[in-house]
Amino acid sequence: MTLERISKSYGDRRVLEELGFEVGEGELFGFVGSNGAGKTTTMRIVLGVLAADSGEVRWGGAPLDETTRRTIGYMPEERGLYPKMKVHEQLVYLARLRGRSARDARRATDEWLERLGVAERRGDEVQKLSLGNQQRVQLAAALVHDPEILVLDEPFSGLDPVAVDVMSQVLRDKSAEGVPVVFSSHQLDLVERLCDRVGIIRDGRMVAVGTTAELQEHGEARLLCRVEDAPDGWADAVPGVLAREGDLFTLAPDADEQDLLRAALAAGRVREFSWRRPTLTELFRDVVTGEKA
C-alpha cells in the first residue's frame, strides 16, 4: 500500500502536508506521532471516510476504490461497535456486510473470539464488557472478513500485558500471511519491538521513516557508564563530557572515552561501559519536540 503526497485541510488549517509512505506485503508498520499530528486523518483517508485534497492511495499499483477498501480491516481508536448488540451476533453481522456467507461468518467469529480470549462473552452485550474486552472484540471485528490490509488506530489502548501479547502475536501472524499491517500507538517500546519499520509524523508531515536501527543512526549515541559506589561528581573533571543524565554521558566528538573509563575505574567498580543508541521513545522526543534524547 502506497500513500503518495496526501494533503488535507479544514479551512485555513492544514492537517496533512504532502504526506507519503509505503507499506509492503507482510510488513508491520508503526505510525506514530503526537496527538493531533494527523494519524487518524490519514487512516480515514485510506479508508475513504475522508477525501484527500490532493495525493493518492494505491494498492497493487492501482488507486484504492470502494471494492478494494472492502478488503481492509479497520480498528478505530474510538469504540465503533453497537453497544447493545450481543458480541457474537454483531461480529457475524459485520462479517456478512463484508461479503462472507452466513456459515463462514459464524466460523470466523467463533475462531477469533476463541483466539482473542473472549469466547465466553459471546452472548454478552458489548456495553457490558470491560474496556479491554471491548478492545479485543473490536480487533475481532477488523479480522472476521479475512482482510487483505489491516489499519489499526491505537489497538493496544487499555489492554493488560497478557492481552497485549495476544494481540501482538495476532499482528505478527497476519503479517506472516503477507498482510500489510499499519497501526498507530503511543506505546513506543511496543512499536520498537513489534514493527519492521516506523514512520513519525509531525504537524501533518512525515518527518522520519525507517527501521528502528536506521532511525537510530541519526540519533545521538551516548555512553552508558555504570559505576558501583562511586562518589557524587566523580566525572565532573573528565575532559570532553558535555552532559550527564544518570549513567548516560554525552561526549564531545573529539573526546576520548578512555578518559571516562579511567575516571570510572578510579571511582569504583565498573559494572557496565558501552555505547548506547537512543530508544524509539528518545528518538520520538527528539524529532517531535526538538528536545535532545
UniProtKB/TrEMBL annotation:
Top-level lineage group: Bacteria
InterPro entries from the UniProt entry: AAA+_ATPase (IPR003593), ABC_transporter-like_ATP-bd (IPR003439), ABC_transporter-like_CS (IPR017871), DrrA1/2-like_C (IPR025302), P-loop_NTPase (IPR027417)
Keyword terms of this UniProt record: ATP-binding, Nucleotide-binding, Transport
Entry annotated with the keyword Cytoplasm: no
GO MF annotation list: ATP binding
Domain ABC transporter as annotated: residue spans: 1-228
Statement: the UniProt record of this protein carries the keyword Cell cycle: no
Family: Belongs to the ABC transporter superfamily.
PANTHER family in alphabetical order: ABC TRANSPORTER, ATP-BINDING PROTEIN
Name under which the protein is recorded: ATP-binding cassette domain-containing protein
